[in-house]
Design a protein that fits this description.
- It is built from 13 helices and five strands.
- The chain is α+β, with helices and mostly antiparallel strands.
- It has two domains: 143 residues, Beta-Lactamase; 110 residues, Homeodomain-like (Arc Repressor Mutant, subunit A, Orthogonal Bundle), CATH 1.10.10.60.
- The protein has a five-stranded antiparallel sheet.
- A hairpin with a 5-residue loop joins strand 3 and strand 4.
- Helix 8 packs across helix 9 and helix 11 crosses helix 12.
- The longest helix has 19 residues.
Length: 253
């Protein structure tokens, strides 16, 4: 992509008077909750899908309140722990399984991703969150506390040697049962999900750090730079160096 096209894109986006179109788009998706919080955990924006779940009459009622004001304590504690991790590391939280409440007030599970929001100086000032309801897996009993514990462990220890058998044992399942649940929920095998998690973490480091590619490879669970580069290119279509240069500067190397 040329510098001229990037400049044109940036100029166009700056002409948009308000970012409220994002909120409006998510308001039309009843199975997806969208929100923005500041660093104190206060809601700045909440999509319509979450209003009824929180017992509110209007989205305005959520402004300035925290998860502890709106959700049961165990849910609020988990959400806040994730937020604090994001603010501490500056890295996104991707594909977390979280307990949620549906529109009929029944409980279930959702798949949540949180991205840091930065100001013009690069400081993290808040986060944006999208949570996708997993209605069918929840009602089929495919997600439970033990399964979530295994996924949490994978997300926290992805850079360490992990195998599907150990994760299955942690979830109280056979390897075959664990594999079927992974495919149903994430549309990936356990091995593919682990690779995705490692590649996602590596991509963030390529953009937001000055670590060498070899250092990033070892920090994200790959045995060496060669295996990391091969897997990264297979997944993204770009070498790690090309990805870093393109995202940072909008140009190829």
């Amino acid at each position: 992509m040329s510098t001229e096209l990037l400049d044109w894109r940036d100029a166009f986006m700056k002409r948009i008077a308000s970012p409220s179109f994002v909120e409006a788009l998510f308001d039309r998706l009843p199975d997806i909750v969208f929100s923005i919080k500041d660093r104190s955990g206060r809601y700045v924006v909440m999509s319509e899908a979450c209003v009824g779940r929180c017992g509110l009459t209007s989205k305005r009622d959520a402004i300035g309140r925290t998860a502890f004001d709106l959700f049961p304590a165990p849910m609020a504690e988990r959400y806040t722990h994730q937020d604090e991790q994001l603010f501490r590391t500056g890295r996104p939280i991707v594909d977390n399984l979280d307990l949620t409440v549906y529109g009929d007030r029944s409980s279930g599970w959702c798949l949540s991703t949180k991205e840091p929001l930065r100001d013009s100086e690069g400081q993290v000032i808040g986060l944006a969150c999208i949570s996708k309801d997993l209605v069918e897996p929840s009602r089929a009993g495919l997600v439970d506390v033990s399964f979530v514990r295994a996924i949490d462990y994978l997300l926290e220890h992805f850079a360490e040697p992990l195998c599907a058998e150990d994760l299955a044992r942690m979830a109280g399942l056979s390897p075959a049962q664990f594999g079927r649940r992974m495919k149903k929920i994430f549309h990936l095998t356990a091995a593919q999900y682990l690779i995705k998690t490692r590649v996602d973490a590596a991509a963030q480091r390529l953009v937001n750090s000055d670590q060498t590619i070899a250092e990033i490879a070892l920090a994200t669970g790959f045995c060496d730079q060669s295996s990391f580069s091969h897997r990264f290119r297979h997944t993204t279509g770009l070498t790690p160096g090309q990805y870093r240069q393109f995202v940072r500067d909008g140009r190829w190397i």
